[in-house]
Structure formats: structure tokens, C-alpha cells
Design a protein that fits this description.
By secondary structure, the chain is of the alpha/beta class. It has helices spanning 24-28, 34-40, 49-57, 62-73, 75-86, 99-108, 125-130, 134-137, 144-147, 154-164, 178-186, 197-206; strands spanning 10-13, 20-21, 94-95, 112-117, 140-143, 171-175, 190-193. The protein has twelve helices and seven strands. Helix 3 (49-57) packs antiparallel against helix 4 (62-73) and helix 4 (62-73) runs antiparallel to helix 5. The chain is globular, with a radius of gyration of 18 Å.
Length: 211
Amino acid sequence: MACASRLVTDVIFDFCGVVLDWQCRAALAGHYPPELVDRICADDDPCGFFDYEDRMDHGELLAQVLPDVEREQGKELADVFADYIARYNDALPRMIPGMEELLGDLRKAGYGVWGLTNWSCETFHFAFEKFPQLERLLNGTVVSGVEKKFKPNADFYELALHRFGLKPDACVFFDDTAKNVTGAQQVGIRAFRFSTAEQARRDLASVGVRL
């Protein structure tokens, strides 16, 4: 029988790609020519949008990033990037299927449910405005752009554990990015790479979570 300190009491979730469906393309399609949207959203990031957004997730403001966008990509793309950030709610078309139910079931079963996300302080509010049910589904959330700490660095997970009052070995963490899963494991949190809500339920059951 597992000792009490190993029993899962709390589950921590990444946001984009886990709780919420994030699609850069969804915020651009219909507003710009398809060939431009394809170029911006290409996997090799030729326009740098993902890199610029990553800087904002790490704590920089749009006003700090935008001059570099214009210098490196030109005024037209800088204007597109600023528009994309202004309409960021369009990039959040839905919750990931099954996740509202999973978070609700965890809360009903008495588990703590938390968010830990790399997200800009200037756009994070869109998540709760578009999906107000997150207020009742989550006990609290730590945001990288606010804290200027971020996954996969150990200090960001440790900040969340301290803020939430949690023991690492009593937590499970889900993220869709492998390096962030590894980062959680390195501070003693059991962690799984997220694929679907159904798989997350199986992963939770494997460590003794009963829903």
C-alpha cells in the first residue's frame, strides 16, 4: 500500500494544448491572405511569430517586442502581429474536448485542480473571459508572463507548489510539451505528456486517482 505522502491530492494542468485549444491560424484566417497565413503558421516559423510570442510568455510586453518585429520582419508583419495579440481570443476556439468534464470530475472527487502556464500577462485574461467556467474549475493558476519565470525551469514549478501549498510527490502534472513534462519530473512531480482527455483519465487512474 502506498504511503500517505505518495497519494495524489492535486492535479496541475498546462493551458494551451491541454485545457484550451490554441490555434494561431484561427486568429488570422479570414483577416489576411491565405498564403500569408500559411507562411506565418509554418512549422519552421519563418515570420518569428512563435518566437515573439514566447518572449511575451517569458514576461516581455508587446511594446518591448514589437520594435524587434518591425526591424526583423517589416512594418506589415509587425502590424499583423500587433493585431493578432489584440484579437488573441480568436486563437482560442474551444476547450479541448473532454477537459471541462475531467476538471469538473476531479473537483467533485475532492482533488485540487490548478493551472500552470507559459502565457503572456497581456493576453492571459482572454482565457477566463472566453471560458468563464475556468473560474469554478480551477483552484488557482500561475502565469509565466506575470511571474517572469517559466517552464521548464525548476523555479517556476517550485513557485507554483509554494503558492498553492502543495507537496510535489502528491501532485500530477499534465503538459503537451515533452520538455515541460521532464521539468516537472525533475522537481519531484509525477507528470504525463498530454494527448487527449481520455488518455489523461487513464494516466490519472494509473497513479491511483479515482473519479
